[in-house]
Amino acid sequence: MTWKSYDLDQEAQRLVLKHRDKKGVIGQSHKMRTTVAFGLERFWGEQLRLLDKEPPKGEYWRDTWKSFAQIMLKAGIKLPQEDVSSKNTNKIQEVAAKLWELPLEDQRICLAVLTQFCDSLVWWTQRYKKSGADDD
Predict the structure, then answer these.
(1) Does 7 reside within a domain?
(2) 3-state secondary structure of 31
């Protein structure tokens, strides 16, 4: 595995700036970084929980996943990126299965890139959070 930047830092900055005016949203970057350790399917699935419960946070997770999927496409790895409703059990199972069925090497590459992507999100979050903001 060789390292390529794929403009991770630029894309992370774009996402943080896009979502920074929504109260409590960009602090999700820290949770994203932690969630990487649990795997692609769990990272992908977090948007479903949040879109129903806290839509602005869910949108940030969804946008992050879609950006990540585009980045991985440049690396030759196709990840699911269609919108899925938390009520559509069959589609959720289908997407999770696609992620679990990725070749092990592709999973490792994805997790390495996602880790770096989330590190960039955290860095930009720390730079762009508004003073006195309650970013959980």
Answers:
(1) no
(2) helix
